Fold these 3 entries.
Entry 1:
Amino acid sequence: MNSLLQLPIINGAVPAALIAAGLLALLWLVWGNRRVLTRWVPGALVISVAATVIFWYLAEKVWNLWGEPLPRRLYIYAGLALFAVLMIVPKLVTLRRLWARLLVAPVAAVVLLSAAGLANQNFEYYPTLGSLFTATGTTVKTLGQFEADYGRMSPPARTGPTTPATWRPPANMPDHGEVVFVHIPGTISHLATANGYVYLPPAYLAAPKANLPVLVLIHGVPGGTGDWLRGGRIATFMDQYAAAHNGLAPVVVMPDAGDSGAYYPSACLNSRAGQAATYLTRDVPNWIKKTFGAGTYSPRQWAIGGFSYGGTCAMTLAVNHPEVYPTFIDSSGESEPTISQGHAYLVKKYFGGSTADFAKQNALNILKSRRYKGVAGVVTVGAGDTFYRPQGVEVFRAMEHAGMDVRLQEAPGGHAWPAWRYGVYHNMEWLMGRLGVD
């Protein structure tokens, strides 16, 4: 059963079979008598194309539903799905046998499922079959279950960060890490937040445990705290990294950065919409230190990263609070905090119309006058990401000008998980060195 849940659905036999089934289903729906082929099919095509173009225009030019342009092929998939639905009627009218009529809806559903699969292949949001049915696609324990298995965690001895030279894996060290389902309260910020996750590597679970650094990873919007586990497959990657490094890897914290329940995302700012920056720079670190005893030695043990909205958060917090997060990874982030309603509305809603108050927390404004020492980061941009790529380059240049030790990297793909994972996956050795482990 477990192997079935781990079945890949973004590459390999499953998506190939689904696409083939979708094409055959679509051909069966359009095949019929002369009236169907000359009237119904052209009519359904015209309606589908028109509806798709209108939706594209409204979604991207009027409402800005997604916050950035989506690949045009996604609208083509949606149009084909609509065309299949429209062809249900003529198919039902022309078929004589009851059993054949009963097949129409399921066959149309195959086309819809195939279109959804193609869209998923673009973003790689659901990598396995199991990720469709569980919150994250990985085994998760509650904090109570974790403490029942391992006991309450106390801080390691303050003898400095663990390094490969000083670490000797105990015989009782497990061969994989644990993912814990947590709620990090907004004790200082009073921000309403959703539950999050914490990944604890094998060296942390050993007795005595290693003194490990902390990597805070921010999700996208729309999205949630399970993004890095599901699409990012961060637990699997960290287990693999730890296996090659005697169990050493960072403690990974995946908090809610969207202000759960709020109509507008927090944008990781302190504003009228909530004290999100305070939550991520004070509440989260304080709770992690108290609950898991991680990152207690020095601020040098802390880093922040994220993708898209989360990438913008990571670089914004690193610029505003380098004393908390002196190391960062910005994957496919924007040049400044944004919401789908636009910059003017953000300034009005979050800062009462004061552009000066917004500028006090906006990274590009701060970087013009502030110099940084000891702050380092990585900015990654998708090679095919025409919308976010120029913004990432702009951020990189501004940070370099302000004295940060920053590097710009081009990741494969567009604005999707292949590019988003790249920043963490391909910089772990550098990151662990920055965090005092190497």
Entry 2:
Amino acid sequence: MNWRCTRCGKPHAENDPPCDECGHNSFEKAVVRVDEEHESGPRSGGAPDADREPIPSGTVETGPDYVWACTNCGREHVRNTPPCSRCGNPDLERVEQTYEGLERDLDTPSWFEVAKPYLPIFVIIGVIIALFATGIVSPTILPGIGPPSPPDAPGQHSEASGMDLEAVDRAVHDRLEEERESAERRTYDDGLAAYAEYQNRRLVVLEFEDRTPDGVSADEFDHSCEAEVQGAPAVVTDVSVDDYADESGLAEDIASELLSRYGDDIRTGFDAEGVDVHVAPNGDIYAFYAAC
């Protein structure tokens, strides 16, 4: 035997891979290498075989690789083991293995080629981030970002009898400031006002509708308080918003109700406050006061 498999060492009469034993596609000449011949001398029998070309030390002559290809679909198999694993065809033929298209298959596209189809999406995301970063659009418009939205409540929360109820909120604050010493003055905090609005509408819903809005914490609102926020509801009854000529008159009665209920807690001990006024379906005036 002049040839042997370079993987399992099985001898073969001819250089006709693949190996019958393991299917490997590489044979080598089963001869004594040049370096071995120098060390141990010629093999038994005398002179070395002049017709046989020795293989240089450290190299192996592999020859071409062969595979078994399906005559139907072209699927390549390492060994002649029909039927075809892809289509079930019983006929396989031995062909020399080539590597055409390998360079193309291994060619890796650049990051720009990969990202190019997604460039419009990246541009849109960049514009949105820029709008948020510059303050043109508030992040609070996104779901789950910003303070909770107040529940829908029956009645009026923005305007009643031609009066701006948000202006009434501020007028209540101004009226309460008149009751305080200069050292006890409080700033009007929009975050506290938003918290007061949520709690006020929630009270109206609980009173006039058969549902329970979610409860909230003052910490969910963007206020400036470091201390705990205190809330104080008040309801002005036996009056009608139609009886008031302007916002200041209504604010006067709401401030009086708060002072009557909470006394010195309204005058001293806090640094900031917020107010919300809501007119209920029955005409009662609901007010919620928050301070910290």
Entry 3:
Amino acid sequence: MKTVVLKFGGTSVGNIDRIKRVAKIIATYKKKKFGVIVVSSAMSGITNQLIKQTKELSKNFDAAEYDVLLSTGEQASCALIAGRLKHLGFKARSWMSWQIPIITEGSYSSSRINKINKNKISNFMKSGGIPIITGFQGINSENRVTTLGRGGTDASAIMLAKFFNADTCDIFTDVDGVYTTDPKNHLKAKKIDKISYDEMLEMASLGAKVMQPASVQDAKLNNISFSVKSSFKKIKGTLITNNKKAFSDQIITGITSTKNDAKITIIGVKDKPGVAASIFKPLSLNQINVDMVVQNISLNSKETDLTFTIKSEDLKKTEKTIKQNKKISFRKFTYDSNVSKVSIIGVGMITTPGITYRMFQALASKKINIMVISTSEIKISVLISNKYVKKAIATLHKEFKLD
């Protein structure tokens, strides 16, 4: 018997009618004689509502109790799905992570799954049952509930597919696959049939909201191919895989953009060994993630300028941290929060010369100024003004024949 893992996101189970639709989807797999494992998120909006309640109660709500609270959203949706399947005549039941158990490690709110006990679920499936498992959570070595971070139900599905050696893993959401760029930014975006782990990982970390980067990383590390598809349309989704035979000769696979970046420039920094480490260490200790970094060449060997990007919500904390840093000296601190990062991603650029030139020339032709540049083997990112994001995406989409 082939095994399939089906994951349903918050919008897919957002109300009673949608849960009825989800039950029908599950039923179609069961009728095809699949062994079905279902993983569900909380109904859309529930997790945010619970988070809001913790903030109203305390500015420093206990981490362990925070995870216990947030885990209740998935418990409710799983019970509703199981109840509907029973109504339709199927053997089904909800399973909390601690009942299986799903073992996690790491801190509260950002744990990772490292073991899943298969016995109870396997026996239930052998008896013809459909287990409906709470995503986004597990239990730690102290027998306390932990959660996996935003989008963690994807990680639950990937790891269940690994431990149960599933033949298929389908991630159902409110979009019908991964697109070349966000259709909200560009109407000529098109759905990608197949994409590599590395490309999907870059797109997820650079602004694409379809998948959580950690989940894609888990899939890559465990070689789990999975599909992203819509729970609202009966059409083929996007396959994320490492099978080289699956891909076309397309040089650039996708284009992403961010909305919450800020550019920091520290002018007149004393140019000496270790100065960059002295700047970035306190930022790291304050949980501030630094992305793009550019250091100007020191013309007099005495001073240099350092530019880097952060998330805009960290702007005040970054300014305070740098200005209180006694280990560095500088003449001026400036910032710009009206910036966005636009990136092109594709494994094809590894073996294709001239991609950098084509990107920069296309943007220049539309008079779009580039502030900062960063690259890897399969992506080129540029920092530009917010107001030019849609124009940049449209220009690059056309330049690399993605329309």
